[in-house]
Write a structure and sequence with these properties.
Elements (H helix, E strand, L loop, with lengths): L15 H14 L6 H14 L3 E5 L2 H11 L7 E4 L6 H8 L3 E4 L11 H6 L5 E4 L11 H11 L2 E5 L7 E2 L2 E2 L6 E5 L13 E5 L2 H11 L3 E3 L2 E2 L10 H11 L2 H18 L20 E4 L3 H10 L27 H9 E4 L7 H12 L4
Parallel strand pairs: 2-3, 2-4, 4-5, 5-8
Antiparallel strand pairs: 1-9, 6-7, 8-9, 10-11, 12-13
Amino acid sequence: MSVKVPFNALTLGEDAADITAAIDRVVASGWFVLGPEVEAFEREFAAASRVPHVVGVGNGTDAIFLILRALGIGIGDEVITPPLSAAFSALGILMAGARPVFADVDPERLTLDPRAAEAAITPRTRAIMPVHLYGQAADMPAFEAMAARHNLALVEDAAQSQLATANGRAIGTFGVAAATSFYPTKNLGALGDGGAVLTTDANLAVRVARLRNGGQSTRFHHDDAGVNTRLDELQAAILRARLRYLPAWTRRRRAIGARYRAALANAAVRVPKELDAGHVYHLFPVLTGQRDRFQSHMRAAGVETLIHYPIPIPRQPALQASSPAVCPVADRVCTEVVSLPMYPGLSDEAAGTVAAAAATFRP
């Protein structure tokens, strides 16, 4: 059957005129790298995210790497992180020269399990990096207390959780810094790559801003061996145009999530719990031991589904030598998880089609 409901839709919608105007503004200015658009977006996104400092960078992976570099974390150091995420979470740690150590996820929240993380701490551990997966914050009060007990840096991977909160408090304010991504599928997506570091630490923001631009303190003066990973003016202008829609888009995601939850309350598939009202529903995963049959059932109803994520990170060939972690919960989830369509442009009719199809699945 042809697709009635695609998994996502990345064409421009209500924001089209604003994005066109933003692009035209940058082209007319003749300024394309580290200019007024980046500076304005950093201020505006910081205000929206309720953090004092934002530094725009090339992508979310670089944001993780730059936070660790700015903290002096590198060769010989360990960073505890979950095995259930996009592999880029761990690759950012490797880029800094550190070793990712994987601790299992909580079976209900599907984010890093605080007990498993604490058990993984060694004398080489320098940081804990929970991932706010699928749009729901990790158990940040527990990790904040743990980091304080063990004198560890708490770094948040917030690539999937723009505007999310934990216990009413903005993500990015629990740890020393948070990394986010503006990949086009994100809740706030660019028309290309982009990322940012969010932090409450003014000195860390200065170090990250220097490192992203070749380590330059002023032009042609390289105080650090930095890298080249700068959010460009076009993407910053596009993100500024879209940022004004993000609160409404977040409300729409939550409304779709509530509709799915109501429809699937007694369904054969399992829905991970919403354990915090600050959930921003980047994705809507369900779990089933009959994933292939479920996807076939949804496809027959004209609904496209995807898997996030099919392989635990420590089982990826690129990461297997890093940490041979035993993470049975993540291993199971990766064989059962399926993502349903979830984006603000999803109509009520389409959301109803998705919900009805998922609710009628019989293993």
